[in-house]
Structures are given as C-alpha cells and as structure tokens.
Prior knowledge:
Layout: H1 16-23, H2 36-39, E1 42-48, E2 51-56, H3 66-79, E3 85-89, H4 102-111, E4 113-114, H5 127-133, E5 151-155, E6 163-168, E7 174-178
Parallel strand pairs: 2-3, 4-7
Antiparallel strand pairs: 1-2, 5-6, 6-7
Amino acid sequence: xxxxxxxxxxxxxxxxxxxxxxxxxxxxxxxxxxxxxxxxxxxxxxxxxxxxxxxxxxxxxxxxxxxxxxxxxxxxxxxxxxxxxxxxxxxxxxxxxxxxxxxxxxxxxxxxxxxxxxxxxxxxxxxxxxxxxxxxxxxxxxxxxxxxxxxxxxxxxxxxxxxxxxxxxxxxxxxxxxxxx
Length: 181
C-alpha cells in the first residue's frame, strides 16, 4: 500500500469510470499486450475523503510486477492531474484467471501466449475443473500459432512466474501458456 500523495485539495475529481478508462492504458509490465484492467487486477476505484483509492489484486501474492504496477498507476494518474491518490493491495478474494476477459484472451493468443483454458481456474467453483481433476476434459491449451490441440508441456516454469513453457507437436513451435490460477 502506498501513502496518499497530496498536492492540491482543490483539484478536480475525475469520475471513477473515467479513471478506469485511464487505467486501461496501463500495460501489464510482463505482458505489455494487455492492460492491468484487461488482466482484471483493478478491483475498485473510489473517492474516499478526498483521496482517490485504487485497489488492485496481484495475480499472486509474490508477483514481482506488483510494485511496478502500483508505480505505473501512480505515474499515469498523476499525469492526468489526480492530486490525491492511494493505491492499496486487496488480497481477498484472491485473483483468478477467470477475471481475464474474452478480449484480453484474444490479445494474449495474438501475441503468441496461450490464454488460460476456460473453466480451469483454481477457485473450485467450475465444473470443468472438477471434471479435469477427475481425469476428464482437455487440459492441454491450443497452440496460439497454428490452433492445434496437440500440445505438450515442456516446463511448468515459463518466461515469467505466471506462465509455463509448452510446445506444439504439429507445428513444433514453443509457446508460453498463461497458467490457471
């Protein structure tokens, strides 16, 4: 959590919906093709006692990009004249890949990263996850390059902690898979 930054209490207060629009311009530092709002980590934007409070939920509690994201939020909003700002981390409920929207999933795929498989997040609410854990369902992501479902995991550890290394057995291209959380 960052301390409030105050420079002018008479500065205009932009509507929280407008602030969310501004935050949609802030790229994720590890996957710049999607924004922090695409990723679903911006939980709340609200004015509290004259201070704009932006609550974010990191993709996981040890995410190395969290501090950079918070600094970018502060920088981006300061450039738009937000005079009093506090960024808070909200850890509960924990972030899930289910919060990544359909448009963001397409952006990931176009960038060469296989998005999380729908219905496989670890929140335990989804039937597809239960089926997979029981031995059913397809747990292999489609290749983002050729679309083949014939893929295999190379390493559980990818280019960032939230991704795993996979390869397509048809086109033989390696790719990152955004892990389901």
